[in-house]
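Next comes one such specimen:
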Amino acid sequence: MTSNLSHPMSASSLNNPNVVPSQMRLLTSLLLLWLAGVALRLTILAVPPVIPMIHDELHLSATQVGILTGLPSMLFAFAAVPGSLLIARLGVRAALVVGLAITAIGSALRGALPDIGWLYAMTIAMGAGVAIMQVTMPPAVRTWLPNRIGFATAVYTNGLLIGEILPVALMLPLVLPMVHGSWQWGFVTWSAPVAVIAVAVMAFAPRAPSTNGMAPRRRWWPDWHSTLIWRLGIMLGTINATYFATNAFLPDYLRSNGQSEWISAGLTGLNAGQLPASFILLAVAGRLERKAWPYVACGMLCLLATLGIVFGTGAWVVAAATLQGFAAAAILILVLALPPLLSPPNDVHRITAAMFTISYSCAVIVPVISGVLWDLSGIAALAFLPIALCGILLVFLAPAINHVRAMES
């Protein structure tokens, strides 16, 4: 029989003055991670609902709209390594605050001038801020909650998914009426919570232990010769590519085979399907850390879902798209937990930066390959061949996780 002394709320624990502070630190850290996760997507996903208004007011071409929507993903790749430098010089907490502040300011200023060049410039600034935040999150998990890495990763990824849904759902019916139909002030509105989160992190985030000025200078440039970096980057890249490419080609594919009426339901299923995976991983992520079979299973689900989208019709396509979103979100959470699990505390930022650089490059390259295959062949279904190959590649890469030992600091 297990002794009551082992229970976290036993009588001896209640008499321990360190218990309540540690519990408060845990709850505070989890709340700040969740809020920062929300801030990762709030300002970016505020754009799609008002694209028609921006298009008309600034007289944009389709190419200019494509550049506007693609800039954040490019910055996620290009600004990841500079984000690692910022963490090495300032520390996790300060770097996260800087990323939040740049995101809020850049986002709010996007509509300050009625000029496409200005809009691009501020979108680049916002994207750089988000890139810094993304690189900061795994080191924050390792620093703030080293004994709950899987759970903490699931928490902030849940916030990220909520941050994707809120602006898409609320921009048109709630925010725009509040700001008299101004997309410029709509951007300011979605920037305000990010600024508040920055203040909260600055005020309440756990501080690194004092080293009396003797802390070693941390490295920031990734070791591009590390097989771990490439394995993690490509694994995350398969999922980013699957998600972005499916979002990009599902509408036109359905229209090409006479199923336009299922476009909205299909996209909704793809994005809403992520939430159940997020909530399930909140409960079980800690038990799945560094196990290969969940990646193999989800890779197979992604392949099955892609085949369902290509060969299914009607509600079956919606079901397949929902399965795609579910599997992609599950793998996203599990892969994001790997850098803090597999690397020393002082190297988490370097590995994370390299992982994002590689993965978001994949997210740009794979949709381009899909588009080229469709254009050259004239066969719409071939656009999904690279997406299917991503699922297969993930299945082949996953078993290597069992052979990677966590490096000691």
